[in-house]
Design a protein that fits this description.
By secondary structure, the protein is α+β, with helices and mostly antiparallel strands. It is 31% helix and 38% strand. The protein is built from two helices and five strands, in the order H-H-E-E-E-E-E. Strand 3 and strand 4 form a beta hairpin. Helix 1 packs antiparallel against helix 2.
Length: 110
């Protein structure tokens, strides 16, 4: 869970830096706040969170796309999916046990 929280903090800080560098008017939530204040609030919110959801896509050099959608909490539970090349894997972790179900893009279990 600590690695996931660290990753979430990094993403939050990266997003904060991008917002602080923009030339256009920022969202109202950031109005009047310094970049340091926004970053401190992002770190506090991440540390206080009991769960985090991570969603994203990555493009491989060959053009294949990999997608992830995971929810992780502070009770060592993790659930989510990974997709890529017409396949999907559902992942469920409870404590030290992890379960993976592979599926084709049609939704049929392998």
């Amino acid at each position: 869970m600590k690695k996931v929280i660290l990753a979430a903090v990094s993403v939050s800080l990266g997003a904060t830096a991008l917002v602080g560098c923009g030339g256009e008017k920022s969202d109202e939530a950031f109005d009047g706040k310094s970049p340091d204040t926004i970053a401190a609030e992002a770190v506090k919110a991440t540390r206080d969170a009991t769960s985090v959801r991570i969603v994203g896509k990555a493009q491989q050099p060959g053009g294949n796309e990999i997608g992830i959608d995971f929810h992780v909490d502070d009770q060592d539970r993790c659930a989510g999916t990974m997709t890529g090349q017409g396949a999907k894997a559902e992942v469920l972790q409870v404590g030290q046990s992890a379960y993976v179900r592979a599926m084709r893009s049609s939704g049929r279990t392998r």
